[in-house]
Amino acid sequence: MKNIIRLNTYLLTAVFFFFINTNTFAQESAKFEQQVKNLQEHLKNDYFSFGILLQGQADFQPERNAGNGFHASKARFKMGGTFDGKFGYKLQATMLKSPSVLDANAYYRPSSQVELKAGLFKSPFSHEYLTGAGSVLFARRSTAVNQLGTKRQLGLQLDTYTSEKTFRFTGGIFNGNGYNGNSNDDNKFLYVGRVESYFGDGDNQTKLGVSVANETKDTPGSGNLSTGYIGQQTLLTTYASTTQGKLLLDGEFINAWRNPDVGADSNPYGYYVTAGYLVTDNSRLLARWDAFEGDNLAQDSEHILVGFNHSPNKFTKLKLTYSFPTDDSFDKSNFFAILQVGF
């Protein structure tokens, strides 16, 4: 009972803080937005642009004896630009972890429908992982994406569109061992292919996609399911996202087939389904079912997430997320609050 009271206190405090400050946000929003636009005029052009993403996060769980509190969850800067409309570059780094470099790549666009990219960047696999950190709907990405996603890699990628930009084809070859500052330490490669289709425009848009990743891993060790493995692995994800007026529906399913050199084959998988509704032009209510089956390689989990996002302007965002584990006690539920500034 005491833990329920504590959690309700966290929730009510956050809601109270939001409503008390809504008028203040609204009054200062126009002034702040103009100030950021003025700053962007000096920091952004075709050949050089500079941006930041800052997030402060509150994290509370009733059962914890330690760890509840506040921390900086994101502190990133990014630079990029294009020359002659064909050659470009991107650099993104974080000030909160090591290695600090997140993206470091160059690309060539011989036409508006073709791009060749080389360096360090997000491999073209998971729909949610390819969503930028500032645009992720909840405080954290889904369990399946965190466990099975191919994440950032060093490699080479070809990206093409049809002339009407209704279909997109992406393929890449990568080292497969993520980014640890080293070259390909096992001489094995990760191959990723993706096909997407787009329908509609304006407030009514739909995206459908399929991605496949295959690799032979030779990296003994421990970690999540994307590391510490010797053998063959194939990953498949299917995803759909649609916005119809004020309604948002979004989902992804990731399945893995693992054939280790030693031990039994396994088939971990996971998925999420999200629904959202714009209650105002700047505020959205969210609900998600998040499930993961580790097949004895990682812990199974099922969570119901409820969220509320508010953007007083296009540079700031408040995200509230409550996560309840359906397969565990109420005391293991989590409440997150994120305040974000980015441009």
From TrEMBL:
InterPro entries: Porin_dom_sf, Porin_O/P. Keywords: Signal. The keyword Signal applies. Pfam families: Porin_O_P (PF07396). Residues 1-26 form the signal peptide. This is Porin.
